[in-house]
Amino acid sequence: MNRNLKSGIGCILFFLLSCAVFAQSQTSLDLKQTDYIGRYNLKPDLVLEVTQDGEHLKLLPSFWGSAIVFNPIGKDKFESLLRPRMKFEFKRDPKGQVVELVSTGNRELNGVARRLPRGDSKAVEFLLAGKAGKAKAKLDQPSEKVSEARIVKLGFNLLRFRPSQAKCALEFLSSFESQYPNSADLQQLIGLASLMSKNRQNALNAFRKAAAIEPGDSMSASAIRLLDPNKAAPTPKDSWKLPFDIDKLFEQPSEEEIEKVRADWKNRDLRTKDVTVEHKSEMQLGGRKYQIRVFSHTVQNRKHYGAVLVPDGAKRGNSPVVLELHGVNARYSPFDIAKVKTPRLFGENRSHPIIAVPSFRGNTLVLEDKTFVSEGSPADAWDGAADDAIAFLNLITSKVPEADTGRISAFGKSRGGTVALLVGVRDKRIRSVVNWAGPSGWFSNMGTFGWSLKEQVRWGLWEKWKPGRGWG
Question: The whole model's pTM is what?
């Protein structure tokens, strides 16, 4: 046989053998991951569902709005990709079958969850699927420990975390009226479910029943006052008063008012002056080395700071920019630069983008043992923060040569998500925006449990709500 032909056949056989081995290893990997897929019962009304999404496993607890993506750290062991303090370990029986999931690092999820067999659906799963009748039938089984508190909690969680299932919640809660005829809490939840289902008359009837059961309850009284102001008890004499008309405050803005806001945005001076590199260092994030540069600059006569994380080895004008805009906690700050989320979220693409983190006015950036405090009031947390983000972007486009100014995105969580939307509207250099749980539509969409924001403000004035109280 011709030597070249032999060599060619040998290469082909080696290639096919390599493919077979690779396919076998991939199959083994897939089979191993499928070992974990299933549902795990942690508490009577808390099921942890493990599924496969591409190369990753993810876990979705009952009522959670987003899943936890697993990052493997050992045999049968994982951690949360975004919150590594959360650890998960699968336990096997003597036959090697996965039977339990042990979770640590999150107070709500800590514990040992038992794997559920197929077909053994829990009441909470039926509710989340919109099947109120099946949920009720499940709870009617002798093995279930049903109480008023459990039903109220299930209904409340469904309304709170799955408002789209308000009609299911209404059907479910109403099916227990005869079982708990003296429960004001149950009637109040029926009222809220009716309100969220756009049935204000039914809501009024439920709150009236709740008031009859507990005559002194302020929640029922305030709800009736909003739903039937002509027949309700008068406004409390000692309630807070505002020096302006609430109805006027909540009117839709006119085109003239909107244009004035746009003109104001356009005329703001967001040029950065006195730009100085305050700190340089290197840092490993998500398995990638970054060059850290902390800039100080003056904008609107205030000294501000911001951090830029440039991928090691980035070339001039070749790296897209992601503005990572942080949210707030009770103190608004500090924000640890080492905890930026972009590297983990971008996964295999983390090598490419520059991460830019502005320190909003009155906020603090932390890098190891150093702190950088921007001047200004942290209470100017929306429009002012958008100014700060745009000003820092101006600095980046002129002082960070690796930046590709034609590829700029804004990403933020919570307050940062709202600021990302504002920045995206105001600055055309920003090509895309990612809003992660950021509030929007303040007047039209920010109501809670069926009440409009205006109704919540009235309620808060009547009952003198302090920060942290109320519906939102």
Answer: 0.73
C-alpha distances in angstroms, 32 versus 39, 63, 71? 16, 28, 14
Q: List, in sequence order, every residue forming a beta bridge with 60; answer none if it has no partner.
A: 49
Can you read off the two tokens belonging to residue 430? 């920003």
SS3 9: helix
Q: For the chain, how far is it from start to end, CA to CA, in angstroms?
A: 81
Residue listed under structure tokens 């049903």: 146
Report angle CA 391, 293, 421 to the nearest 5 degrees. 35
Distance between CA atoms of residues 323 and 359, nearest Å: 11
Which CATH number applies to 266-443? Answer: 3.40.50.1820
| 123-227 CATH fold | 1.25.40
Kindly list the domain boundaries of the chain, sorted by start residue. 38-115, 123-227, 266-443
Closest by CA position to 79, among listed 97, 54, 104, 114: 104
* Burial label, 180 (beta-carbon count in 10 A; 0-12, 13-18, 19+): middle
Stated as kind and residue range, the H or E segment containing 365 is strand 364-367
Count CB-CB contacts under 10 A for residue 54: 6
The Cα 284–Cα 151 span in angstroms is 48
Which residue type occupies 260? K
Q: DSSP string of 270-330?
A: ---EEEEEEEEEEEEETTEEEEEEEEEEEETTEEEEEEEEEETTPPTT-EEEEEEE----T
207-216 long-range Cβ contacts below 8 angstroms, 24+ apart = 210/184, 210/185, 211/184, 213/182, 213/183, 213/184, 213/187, 214/184
Tens digit of pLDDT at every position of the chain (472 positions): 444 433 443 443 333 333 333 333 333 334 478 899 999 999 999 999 999 988 889 999 999 988 999 999 999 999 998 889 999 999 999 999 999 999 999 999 999 999 999 989 999 999 999 999 999 999 999 999 999 999 999 999 999 999 999 999 999 999 999 999 999 999 999 999 999 999 999 999 999 999 999 999 999 999 999 999 888 778 888 999 999 999 988 888 899 999 999 999 999 999 999 999 999 999 998 778 999 999 999 999 999 999 999 999 999 999 999 999 998 866 556 889 888 888 777 766 656 899 999 999 999 999 999 999 999 999 899 999 999 999 999 999 999 999 999 999 999 988 999 999 999 999 999 999 999 888 877 666 556 899 988 899 999 999 988 765 554 4
For every residue of 141-201, DSSP letters joined together read: STTS---HHHHHHHHHHHHHH-GGGHHHHHHHHHTTTTTSTT-HHHHHHHHHHHHHTT-HH
CA proximity to 315, closest of 357, 351, 345, 262 = 351
**Upstream peptide bond of 467 is cis (omega within 30 degrees of 0):** no
- Closest by CA to 424, choosing from 412, 414, 442, is 412
